[in-house]
Amino acid sequence: MLTLVSVVQGQVTQSPITIQQVVEAALRTYPAVRVSEEQINAASAGIQLARTAYLPRVDSLAQVNRATRNNIFGLLLPQAVIPSISGPVLGSNSLDSVWGTAVGATVTWEPFDFGLRNASVAAATAAKTRNEATLKRTELEISVAAADAFLTLIATQETVRAAQAGVDRAQALSQSVRAQADAQLRPGADVSRTEAELAAARTQLVQAQQAQDIARALLSQFVGIPPDQITVAAARLLQLPSEQTPSPFDAAHNPAAVEQNTLIDQKKAELQALEKSYVPRLFVQGSAFARGTGAQTDGTRLGGGNGLAPSTQNYALGLTITFPLFDFASIHAREAAQSATIRAETARYQQITTELTTRQNAARAALEGARKTAANTPVAVTAAMTASQQANARYQAGLGTIVEVADAQRLLTQSEIDDALARLGVWRALLSTAAATGNVQPFLANAAP
Hints:
Layout: E1 5-8, E2 11-14, H1 19-29, H2 31-51, E3 57-68, E4 97-109, H3 116-182, H4 188-223, H5 255-275, E5 281-293, E6 312-322, H6 328-396, H7 402-437, H8 441-446
Antiparallel strand pairs: 1-2, 3-4, 4-5, 5-6
Helix pairs in contact: 1-3, 1-4, 2-3, 3-4, 3-5, 3-7, 4-7, 5-6, 6-7
């Protein structure tokens, strides 16, 4: 189960979810993953379809008709409109009809195919392998997107917390100054300034809450929980992660690169199947059939139910060889197009690995910068807090202005936001590094509570 549901005083409450649970839920329920899984099932069926070419083919027929028996000399080009008729030419033209029946079966088997069927099965297998690689790439992208949505929600929550603290400080300052102004100890302008700062702080809080609601809505698509019921467990992610020695990077192991490589293999397998198509095809055939007719060779009719049952039998055994002699030009052109496709996909593979290497280098640089920033922001918070306390003390002693106090409080609020986001920035950089590497499991293990 993704979350634990409990009932407290008649209300249903949702237990906090972790980043690991979010990723697991996304991999189970997100539509893109199910699409890739069904594509694998379709490819598996395609392999079975290709293998059926090894089986003999049996065609059977049964027919009953009532037709005239007029027959003439002459050629008729192949067509599918005028039925064929057998028997001698009688030289008459009558509309009298007789019964006719036919039953039969033909077995066709291709014992030798010069590797065509095997190449077709190999192409279908390569298609399945590519779809499996697509699933892995999709799972990686969904995992990264779900984890990023989780981090985004935590970032907005920390922004709301800091913004709320800023509102509380601005409200306390406004109340204090108003009381002093009512006692004729402070000018009315100070009251106006503190009310303006309070309004600005509330606006910042509203914007932070809006961002939090949006982030919660984005996360809900991965976990299947209504946004207003989502609570997250983020204690570990609010701390700086421990520094670890980066693992060796190989872009070829990233699912995106693996998928592209399997696509190249699929195109090569399809090219081999195409090359095998310009070969002779040998079919062993056997046929048995029987026909019945109510007409005699002299043109007379037998009448009654004659012809409703087959009365004359035949069988045949033989070999058929076919060869698409004049298909060479078209097949050669298709082979040239397929070869060009393979070269294009190979170049795209090189582009993907180059981009992955660039992303990895950028992620590591971002991680280093994020760690340095996170090490500096606590200093800024401490200094801003001290400055706020000193500005307030100077103002209370009549040595400072309300502007100095307001500026110090805004600086403190921004420093607290920056400090929280800096720690999450380190985690986000780690996630980017994991995405470039192609494996988010070490990141999830490091983020486990």
